[in-house]
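User: I'm curious whether this sequence folds into something compact or stays loose and floppy. Could you predict its structure so I can see for myself?
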Amino acid sequence: MEEHSTAYVAFDTAKLRNAVAVAEGGRGGEIRYLGEIENTGVATARLVHKLSKKYGTLRFCYEAGPTGYGLYRQVTSLGYECTVAAPSLIPRKPGDRVKTNRLDALSLARQLRAGDLTAVWVPDARHEAMRDLTRARQAASEDLRRKRQQVSALLLRLGRVYPGKTTWGKAHTSWLASQKLDHLEQRLALEELLLAVRQAGERMRRLEQAIGEAVPSWSLAGLVTALMALRGIDLIAASTLLAEIGDLTRFRTPRELMGYLGLVPSERSTGDRVRRGGLTKTGNRRARRILIESAWSYRHPPRVGMAKLAKLEAAPPAVRDIAWKAQTRLSARYRALTRAGKLDVVAIAAVARELAAFVWAVAQAVSAPSATPTA
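Assistant: Here's the prediction. I'll summarize afterward.
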């Protein structure tokens, strides 16, 4: 049997077929295109078995995308290393203007051999299921917001403006029900839009209830409880944050988590000239959105309400100290920035960046051996 030391195998994945390329070990090792195989478990297992007869060590990779992590789980279950590469961090030549499945597979194999690929964190099957559930809730929330906007837009076109301050409460709902439109067609349109709003709201409540029922049996249930001690973070926010980020302890420092969430300023400096811009907004946009929404609660002075008190008592003592420190520091930070003339949105972005550091600290406290387990 002819056997080489190592082969680096790359898949360019698609819905139906995967393009495959292999790079043999060593700087001068051959890189060749093997063709396309069906995107099925049987075809993948057949390819792995065939390559294992020729090479002593196999390493696989593919680019993270809509096909998910099934290929990763199958390859690792067969006993081989597999890298799921972060698409935004794959090196690309600026002058390349040709993109095909074959060229992508060859490029991935070459970069895997050179060690130029950055791997994403791959969740287990249960964690991915929680991520799907929290994303379904976010989609329902966005759908509800759009449908409410359609109702408001229709009434605005007809000159009907709600005189109150807060919309979509009981008073606003009563006002909507009292509107008498002149034409039957407009009345039917409004009724259908209001029905869609009610259905979207019911859908979101069902998903929130499902999240609440799923969290206690989740491996990160203790960390969810701990994060709820932080101001502005409830069950839904904590579950969504952890479902998107995953294992927080993989970040060695808070600054790494901030960079992962895209909450650090961009920079284009050269020579003696330093130019810093807005947030990079890289990484996971859903987790970044949760932190920014939570950061708005730190506009107010530090205090602990009755609802938050119960969540604080459920957290370990070390987490309670972190939560109070976060309140005092971030509230002061917001006030200092706004007094300096910063816009609210700029100040909130800075608060969200520091809130990410406190989230990291909570994860470290919970994972520490001396942490008190929660009920």
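Summary: Confidence is low (pLDDT under 50) at residues 371-375. Residues 221-367 form one domain.
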